[in-house]
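Reopening: structure tokens for the zinc ion complex, inputs below.
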Amino acid sequence: MKEQIQTLGTALENLGPGSLAVVTGAGISQASGIPTFRGTDPEAIWRQSDVALATFEYFRRDPVGQWQWYLQRFEAVAAAKPNPAHTALVQLENWHTLRGGTFNLVTQNIDTLHEAAGTRSMIKIHGTSDRVRCSQVGCSRGSPGGSLVAAEVRFDDFIAAPTEQNLPRCPECGSILRAHVLFFDEYYGEHQDYRFAEAEEIAQSADLMIFIGTSFSVGITDIFLRAGILKRIPVFSIDPGGERSSPWPDLTVLPSAAEELLPEICRHLETHQSPSPTADSPH
Ligand SMILES: [Zn+2]
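Re-run output (same inputs, fresh job):
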């Protein structure tokens, strides 16, 4: 791991006050007990057959079934705590912005672990588990800009008796509420909260990219990877199984667990501050 610390540490030091873009996927939350979507861990819940559950088509056909599935998943997400990888990214944000650099995190995760850890500059490109929204497009609580705090919506009746009548409903128009997440059969432009245009700008203006725990199987990783390739900037992927599945030969794969590697990188950066030439002399 020493070599990996050196490689990424040096790249971050050489970046100076440039633009650092970090893209995180389910792999970063695995150490917090949230199963990955398409990972190889035995608990990966997002197997091919399950992808069908996270679609608008399924929501329309069987909202009761989809809400039961989501509530189960959101329960696991709500109980999870940030792990050392989330914490180290906050340290990295502080370190880099103190040097005058720009830090942006784009996460594919719907959990709330980055915000719980204290990350400031972040886009949740696939939505969030702590909000819901009205399924009626154009309603003030639905697309394109509306949503509700999930904790303020009563799910008790539905949990006690999961029927169509007990589904949570919009306080504004009475339509059925839906998860505030991007379904597989929807587009990033579906809701303003996904902040897709901003994410594209971040990809275009990045001087260094770090992917963490992503399987490169969603649109947003393609957009970042393509921008990185075209601009010929340093691109890293922290992924314990990444050597087997690198989508691009010029991608520097660091085959470590993020919760182990990232804290070491931060330690390296903090003990390795290049002192100014005049302050350096002992005499
Ligand atoms: Zn509504």
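The chain has a mean pLDDT of 90. Residues 63-79 form the longest helix (17 residues). Marking as resolved unless the reporter disagrees.
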